[in-house]
Each structure stands twice: as structure tokens, then as C-alpha cells.
From TrEMBL:
Keyword Disulfide bond: yes
Superkingdom of the organism of origin: Eukaryota
GO molecular function: serine-type endopeptidase activity
Keyword set, alphabetical order: Disulfide bond
Gene Ontology biological-process entries: proteolysis
Pfam families given in the database record: Trypsin
Protein name: Peptidase S1 domain-containing protein
Keyword Disulfide bond in annotation: yes
InterPro entries noted in UniProt: Peptidase_S1_PA, Peptidase_S1_PA_chymotrypsin, Peptidase_S1A, Trypsin_dom
Length: 301
């Protein structure tokens, strides 16, 4: 192998090429998204893809805290785009799961976790990291219409797919839901992420921007207790926006980009809101605290 070909191989290993996709969801090979990891739970019916994670460093991955609320019998698998490919020989031994200290399952708050592996991952065409975006969300006409790629195992929980989506971040992006910490996808009837997708990546401009964490029904914004079903009308896909958490991630993963001032301000604003929720929680006014937080988001910001 000559010097030129060796250089090209190294470039390929360290900087995965993100293929462009059209608006239709398509099944893909893991070589097209080698940063995607599957959180697999072994059940009596065999292995099932329970969640997803994203490799951001040889020893670190990002995922959703809810994915490891019950970590028993769960494995992180690499190099698979179909559950039929799962083998315990393709799992990454976990050394530690670091939950965000203010993760709050009841209001789906700070749903981000860092996974540390016992040994560094050896990169090849089926497994390599992706860079975390270190800039703030666009403030131009892309604020509510940014083209990104959503990677999913989805309702089938069996095969990896990719779909081009319009991602939104801003005051009106997530309707009645707090926008500071969230990215929401534009509503498309018949399409949403699903339960096997939580923890999975939202990739914008070739970098990791969000982590899938929930689906919500817009009727909940007007007080109706409506349980969302994947792909139903008015069901919105929501992601944790990584930017406000960059400093926290950087405490563990030193290669993480430093947060821009705007994202650090979002993190500080979030801390104030969390203090209100935690105080009210202590006096059994947690639901009231949740409503106050939503009002603060919509009024103050």
C-alpha cells in the first residue's frame, strides 16, 4: 500500500462519510453509519433492540438516560444493522454509565447519559466515532427548517434505517414543550421515531446534534391526556439538544468541543429551572413545578 492509499484509509477510518438521503426512510448498512450502536436486551424471545447509542470516542458513547434505567441484561452492540447480526462477540464491555445528575424521568428532563467502555474500540469500516457539533443552532431561516438525518431501528426494532428530516429549535419549535433543551422534528403524519429509537442520533451537517428521547402528542398541550402511538397524526418526535450539555460531556470526554457562549447560557438558564422543579418536588408539588417550568419557558424566553 503506497503513502496516498494509506492516507485515504486513515481519513476514512477517522472521518465517516455521511451519505445524503432523500425524504423516504431507507434501510442502510452499518458501514453507512458506523457510529450507530444498538442497545440490545436479551429476553426469553431472544435479543431485542431496546434503544440506541452513538459512538463519540474510542471509549465513550452518548445515549439516553432512560435506556439504562434498568440496565440488567442489556448490551451495547457495534457493527450491526440487523438484529439477526447480533452476537455477544460484537458487544462493548461497559465500565460505567454516567447519568446526567439532574435527569428527571417524570418530566423527561436532561435525558442524556455517557457510557464509558472498559477498553478502546478498534475502528474499522463497521465501527467508528462521529464528532459532536460544537456550534450553536443556526439563527437564520434554518432555525425551524434544518435538514438533518435521523437514524432509527424503529417500530420493527430489527433493521437500521435513515431518514432525512426537518429539525426545529426555537420558541415555536416544540409547541408547548420547553425548547431550550429540545430539538423537535417537523410533524409528518405517519412518521415519527419510535421506542426502539430512543438514545439514537440526530446528525446535522455531518455532526451529532441531538439524542432521541421521546414522542409526544400535541393534544397534551391543551390538557388532553393522550398516549402517543408511533407515527400517529400530531405525534411529535423530540430529541435532547446536546449543545447545552457540552460542558458536562467535556468533563468526561475531553475531546468534546467547548460550548459556545450561547449554549452555556442555555445551560445556566436550565439550571435555574431545575432548581425550581427540585424544590417543589421536595414538598410534593412536582406537577405544579412542571407547569411552572413550561410557563417560564414560554414567557421568559
Amino acid at each position: 500500500m503506497n503513502i496516498t492509499s494509506t492516507f485515504l484509509v486513515n481519513i476514512f477510518l477517522f472521518f465517516p462519510i455521511i451519505r445524503a438521503f432523500d425524504e423516504d426512510e431507507v434501510y442502510i448498512s452499518i458501514t453507512e453509519a458506523p457510529f450507530v450502536l444498538a442497545v440490545v436486551q436479551v429476553t426469553h424471545d431472544g435479543p431485542q433492540i431496546d434503544c440506541m447509542a452513538t459512538l463519540v470516542h474510542r471509549r465513550w458513547a452518548l445515549t439516553s438516560s432512560q435506556c439504562f434505567a434498568k440496565p440488567d441484561n442489556k448490551f451495547i452492540a457495534y457493527g450491526i444493522s440487523d438484529i439477526k447480526q447480533f452476537s455477544k462477540n460484537q458487544t462493548l464491555p461497559i465500565e460505567e454509565i454516567i447519568y446526567h445528575p439532574h435527569y428527571h424521568q417524570h418530566i423527561n428532563n436532561n435525558d442524556i447519559a455517557i457510557v464509558k467502555f472498559k477498553t478502546p474500540v478498534e475502528f474499522d469500516k463497521t465501527v467508528k466515532n462521529i464528532e459532536i457539533e460544537g456550534t450553536t443552532w443556526p439563527q437564520d431561516d434554518r432555525a425551524l427548517n434544518r435538514e438533518c438525518i435521523s437514524y432509527r431501528f424503529g417500530q420493527t426494532r430489527r433493521k437500521l434505517s435513515a431518514k432525512k428530516v426537518d429539525a426545529r429549535h426555537g420558541k415555536s419549535a416544540c409547541h408547548c414543550y420547553p425548547y431550550i433543551r429540545n430539538i423537535c422534528l417537523a410533524l409528518i403524519d405517519g412518521d415519527s421515531i419510535c421506542y426502539g429509537d430512543f438514545g439514537g442520533p440526530l446528525i446535522c451537517d455531518g455532526k451529532l446534534v441531538g439524542i432521541a428521547n421521546t414522542i409526544v402528542h400535541l393534544e397534551q398541550c391543551v390538557g388532553r391526556d393522550t398516549s402517543p402511538s408511533c407515527g400517529d397524526k400530531d405525534v411529535m418526535s423530540m430529541y435532547t439538544f446536546i449543545c447545552p450539555y457540552l460542558q458536562w460531556v467535556k468533563w468526561y470526554v475531553r475531546e468534546t468541543p467547548a460550548p459556545p457562549a450561547s449554549c452555556d447560557a442555555l445551560r445556566n438558564a436550565e439550571t435555574v429551572r431545575l432548581t425550581v422543579v427540585e424544590c417543589l418536588k421536595e414538598i410534593n408539588l412536582e406537577d405544579l413545578g412542571t407547569n411552572i417550568i413550561i410557563l417560564m419557558e414560554n414567557f421568559v424566553n
